[in-house]
Write a structure and sequence with these properties.
five-stranded antiparallel β-sheet
Length: 140
């Protein structure tokens, strides 16, 4: 199986000190792409150093794009997710009017595919570039 034929899910967890385990804030399901020859309309594509998903309409849980780049050098791999609109299914409301997450101490993001592979990262407060009631941008 190759990456563009697999279902993926992106899970976002908010760690809150008052809860015994992280709060599942959102689960975004992204199925395989739609190929209409000769052009891929939307979906996963693979090249030697990255996997990426494109769907400008955000048909699947509001996800309009994601890019996952691999690099054997420590700290050089990356993942980026963009989603917006009415199709984004937040399981929990924003923490407050000015913050999506409590993030105490962190926000955890996982990418999981249907055959069991899981990529995981955790963003501590020092990793956050922008966090307000509508955006969360972090890098570690």
């Amino acid at each position: 199986m190759v990456a563009n034929n697999l279902d993926y899910a992106i899970c976002i967890w908010d760690h809150r000190p008052a809860l015994p385990k992280p709060l599942l804030w959102a689960r975004l399901d992204v199925p395989p792409g739609l190929l209409q020859r000769p052009v891929r309309v939307h979906g996963w594509q693979v090249n030697p150093r990255s996997i990426f998903y494109t769907d400008q309409a955000g048909r699947n849980d509001g996800v309009s794009g994601t890019v996952i780049k691999s690099d054997l050098r420590p700290g050089r791999s990356s993942a980026n997710l963009t989603g917006n609109g009415v199709n984004l299914p937040f399981l929990k409301p924003a923490f407050s009017a000015s913050a999506l997450f409590q993030q105490s101490p962190s926000v955890q993001v996982q990418l999981v595919n249907e055959i069991g592979f899981c990529w995981n990262t955790t963003f501590a407060q020092g990793d956050v570039l922008r966090h307000n009631g509508t955006q969360f941008i972090a890098r570690n």
